[in-house]
Structures are given as C-alpha cells and as structure tokens.
Amino acid sequence: MLRLSQGQLNLLEACPRKFQHTYIDQLGFPTALEYQEQINWGNQFHLLMQQRELGLPIASTSRSDPLQQSVAAFIQAAPEIFQTPPDTFRQSEHSRSLEFQGYLLTVIYDLLIMDDRQAQILDWKTYPRPQQTRWLKQNWQTRLYPFVLAETSDYPPEQISMTYWFVRGQPDRPTQPERITYAYGPQQHQQTQQDLAHLLNQLTHWLDRYEQGEAFPQVGRSSGNCETCSFAVRCQRVDWETPIASFPDLATIEEVTL
Ligand code: SF4
To answer: Which end of the chain is more exposed for a tag (fewer CB within 10 A), N or C?
Structure first.
C-alpha cells in the first residue's frame, strides 16, 4: 500500500508531474548548502525538544548558542505547553496512520497533548512566521493532521486543534516565538474528506495511466511553479541557458523524522 504524507499531498496538488519525478521516478536534486544548514538547524531543534519531552538532559551546548537560546525562548513563551496537569496524555513525535481509499495516510505530530476536553496537535516550524498565512490554512498538513486524529481517536472534530509554533519568531525578533492556531470542526472534517477523496481518485487514475506509459499531468505555466522547479528543463519550461532559482518549497517540506 502506498504511504502518503502531508508533504506528498502538497506536492501532488501543486504539480502531479513533480510528484511523479520526485516520488515515483525518484529523481532527486542535491539541496543547496544554505538550505541544508536550515534543515540541519530544524532537525537539531526537533531533537532537543524530543529529548526534553523524554526527560533527558539537553546537550550541554553553550547558553549563547542560538539553538539553545531558541529552545529557552520557546519554553518561556509557551509555558502552558510544558506545564500540563499530571493526568494529561502527551507524546512527542507521535505517529499515526489511516487507511483511506487504498492509501496509507501517515502523520507525525511534533507534540500531541490530550486531556478529557481537547486534543492539541503542535508543530514546530523553524523558519520565520510567514507574512501571508492563507496558504498555511490550505496546506495539507493543516488539513490532514486533525483529520487523521479525528478518524483514529474518540475526539470529535470540534475538540481538536492544530497549532504551529514559529520558534524563530521574526528576523527582527528572533527570541519571540509566534504561534498560529487553527480550530477544527465537523465542516472542516467533511471538506477535508471530500478533498482527499478527490485528490486520491486522481492519483489512482494517474498511476493507472503511468503504468501504461503516460506521464502525470504538468501544472499550467501560469501557476508560476515552474520558474523555481528543479525539473523545469526536463519539462521544457525553460531552456538550458536559463538559471533556475531552485529552493525548497515550504509547503512541501517533509516532517522531521527522528
Ligand atoms: S517544471 Fe513545472 S510542470 Fe514540470 S515538474 Fe516542475 S512544476 Fe511541474
């Protein structure tokens, strides 16, 4: 059974051909050094948070270390996350799977906090809070994470929420983490179910055609996605001489797996 994460759903929705090249053809591109450093920073932050959740000592890095400062600033900014009542269930790197239309939808919550009234899904973002957040609301992570929890637990949708913590704040306020919370509800749940069913029906169709030698569809030129895509030359959307400003798409970045 094909496993699908939120990052894969985002990519599939953004451009089916890019999904094909990335996950089916497995045509990878090396990540630019500057972005690799950001990814490493994010991985280390997630690791420190998990260590803390497990009650393990956090590595004895210097207090002047930016990573250590970010962890300390985050703990100070969000005490409610770290001081929950004793009968509260909490687990970091909590993973769940849901079988849906022949696919295995997988999620990993950075932290899941559940009590008798509500279930909170928390996610650490290690890039600055975006100015425009409409795309985040529509991002598959925001839709899929509560959906899977509602389908695999006793919590009704209205008792579930999804919170992103931008642990690095803004570039001019790096020690002030910011958060965005999305409440969930029956309407969102129903809409997500419909959107998922539609997208996965399309995927099944494209996979069938692919087995018969037909490539997944390309996104329209007017989408603007091709200008920064690593496959722009392969797709004949730019010529060989045009430099491609390739960078990771925040909407499709995978969850950190520790
Ligand atoms: S160049 Fe455009 S059509 Fe081709 S994979 Fe990238 S986004 Fe899709």
So the answer is: N
